[in-house]
Protein 1
Amino acid sequence: MKKIFILIIGLLSILDLQAQDNAYGLLGGLTVGTQRWNGFDRDPLLTWNARGFYESILNDGLSVPIEFGYHNRGSALLQQGFVSGTNQLISQNYRMRIGNLSVLGAAKKIYKLKDNMEAYAKLGVRLEYSVTDSFEVFEQYTDAIQPFNYGFTLGGGFHFGPVDGPTQFVLDFQISPDFSQQIYAPAGTLINRFTGQPVSFSEQKVTNISIEISLGIRFVTKYYEE
């Protein structure tokens, strides 16, 4: 985690040293969260994300963005069954959500497609801190949440609007796997909320993988030498 932090600080330090041109804006949209639990199958969690960014434009094809955002991580547990004595199928979706504040430092490659359209690809590293949680099942695991997490983000998308600004709309896709464990719990015994009976659980090492699809707006400032 220390190396991730140092790398983000290093990216921040070059934002205004190597370029005058810049961009900034807001993004927000849909998150599909998944988690790896030892011995448990988990369903996707549908939730949301919101973030702001500042981007130092080094040249027409390369920039260094930094993002600050709020990202929901987690997974869900879908249970289905028949009502006793009937053929009626009922479903219940239990959410396990953790809200993280995040800072991302990245490198972004930009490709001009048209005068009013660009594509881009980005790769960066993240540092996150958990600030909220809401578990509708296995609430005991909230005590096992690890507040600091880190990982990388791989993404891409499109800018729609004049390439020199001042305003563009953004369609952004990204996947964010964690290197660290969002939840760690040693082996033990928990109470099953449905039966009220004790259940033994193995050691749990839970990591996040999130896919995010976002829309946003990007304000571009470019300086021209006379």
Protein 2
Amino acid sequence: MDQYKIAVVVGSLRRDSFNRKLASAMARLGPLDFSFKQVQIGDLPLYNQDDDANPAESVKRLKAEIKAAQGLLFVTAEYNRSVPGVLKNAIDHVSRPYGQSAWTDKPAGVLGASVGAIGTSMAQQHLRNILAYLDVPTLGQPEAFIHAKEGLFDADGNIGEGSKKFLQSWMDRYVAWVKAHAAPSTLEWLLQHHEMAPSPGPLKSADQPWKKSAVVAEHG
């Protein structure tokens, strides 16, 4: 794969969101074969199951962007010790109708920043629970509960020196995680290239080692 497309979902609509800045700065730590695109979630209607058969254009757009991505990056704020409503709404839309979720099997990373010392830890844990149910393989370590304080970003919006080493290591682990999960399995590769070997057929009795063992056992 020449290019890994990563859909970045920012769980905040605030104009000067720390997490939007963090998402942009983290993208600059990624390798050249990764491209990061922040998807829009602020224009989605509130999820209503009655609309499953005829979703809004904004819902169709988001779902198509998630389907086209090889990986996901969630950068979320924390409201009242949980995920922001706008993020949960986006997750619900992309997971529906039932059995047609676009999230399934997309490797993901989760991080977030807050002025609080525990840095969105509760929101991240709740988000991980949701992603686990949706069959989204999510990077477990290292966790990144980022305290948004002076020096987190430099004057150009990049990660500041005090946090750069840790967040670069986080990005390196995330990149490896995405590549490991986005790579097709051997069976999928063979099917794609039409090189499935012919079946050798059933083994004859003489070729089945467990039957040989049974014969030896019977005769002591």
